[in-house]
Amino acid sequence: MRGARHRVILSLSKGVALAIIVALVPSAVFSKSHIDDKIRQQKAHIHEVHAKLHVKRAQLSEAKARVGSIQSQLADTNRNIAAVNGRMGDIRGRIVSTQRKLQWNRIQLAAAQATLQRHQDALNRRLVDAYEHGDLGYIDVLLRARSFGDFVERWNDVRYLVKANEATIRARKSDEAKVVAIQTGLLGTQTELEGEQAQARQQQLALDGLATQRRQLLAAADAERAQVQNQVAQLDEMSDAEEAALEQLIREKQAEEEARRAEARRAAKLAGIELPPEPGAPGQLMWPVSGPITSPFGWRMHPVYHRMTLHKGIDIAVPTGTPVAAAADGRVIVASYQGDCGNMVAIDHHGGLSTFYCHMSHLFVSVGQDVQRGQAIGAAGATGDATGPHVHFQVMQNGTPIDPMSYLR
User: Which of 145-154, 199-208, 243-252, 261-270 has the least mean pLDDT?
Assistant: First the structure.
């Protein structure tokens, strides 16, 4: 009876001792590291960087849109300049053609005027001779007729000659009038063309000025775009550095968890408690959700940032609200909003293996909580930098991302 009581007391003593050791060891050994506080601070830094990135990306989008708009306006202006230049070339060609026609008409007019002048001079001389010398010309020809028949024949000849001279004079005057009319019309056409040319030249000057102004605006807008893009690139680098720092803290948290478990097992052994062998990292993982893979593991053009980045996991498309399951047993080491990853859960699975679940609409677990394989840890969504509802599933081995497909079955 005394022996049984002694064994009970000894067992109780060991249990109390184990409880005391397990309770004291983590606080004594791990309270100095403050890993959880560092993770919280790092999350705050990441959130701040991503807030700045969000603002700068919006500015970059506006700057790109402004550059595109000015480029489109400049292209329209250049097309209008080309059209005006073409019209001016056509006008210049028509002016040259009109001037050639005017020159030819001037030659024709000069010839007609010279012929008319010769006829007029001949007529004038005949009239003067008839007045001064009594040379009646045509009358003298008639009076020299030797017979009446000869007189009639001479009369007809004189009459035809007079009519011919008169007809020639009238024709020359008519030709002269036509040439003058054509020349007047051509001069009017030339005046109109010169007016059109002046207007086109004025339009060309205005368009050249507008093109110069838009080129200056384009240069300024492109400089602003380059500056903002440089700021975005710097913030991207900062974000990558902050993410890397967070991953390092998570690795430290995993090491802390491993040390905590090792100390707990050592304390249990000191208390004489038999423990089952500690499981290593799971050999395979279950799918967190069922759906098509929209983006595999590896390098890709980021759908939001539009730059080459390493996609550290796989994207599985599912509707918002779809339950997300833990891929294996483990302990939650992160459960909060994580910048571009949105609402995220990270689970430590022993042996340096951890899994990440991003973009969830809701989280069902908290840091420090032990979860079982297949347990719902959240609901799918599109938080963070996501183009649609999906789950980003990531597997890390000793802090290094590996292709989840090598673990999923």
Answer: 145-154
Question: Do 75 and 161 reside in the same domain of the chain?
Answer: yes
Gap between the Cα atoms of 67 and 73, Å rounded: 10
In which domain, by residue range, is 284 found? 279-409
The beta strands (E) that lie in 162-305 are given as: 293-295, 298-301
Instruction: Confirm if 325 and 289 have CB atoms less than 8 A apart.
Output: yes
Distance of CA 27 to the CA centre of its chain: 55
Return d(Cα 397, Cα 51) in angstroms, integer: 30
- In terms of pLDDT, which residue wins out, 124 or 388? 388
Question: Sorting pLDDT into bands at 50, 70 and 90, what band is 3?
Answer: very low
List phi, psi (to 5°) of 350. Answer: 75, 160
Residues 343 and 233 occupy one common structural domain: no
CA dist., res. 67 & res. 76, Å (int): 14
> Cα-Cα-Cα-Cα dihedral of 92, 97, 103, 107, to 10°?
180
347 strand-pairing partners: 332, 355
Which residues make Cβ contacts (< 8 Å) with residue 92, sequence separation at least 6? 197
φ and ψ at residue 370, rounded to 5 degrees: -85, 135
Same domain, 207 and 316: no
Q: Domain with 377 in it: what CATH number?
A: 2.70.70.10
Q: What are phi and psi of 377, to 5 degrees?
A: -110, -10
Alpha-carbon span 225 to 349, nearest angstrom: 45
Torsion sign (Cα): 266, 268, 272, 276: negative
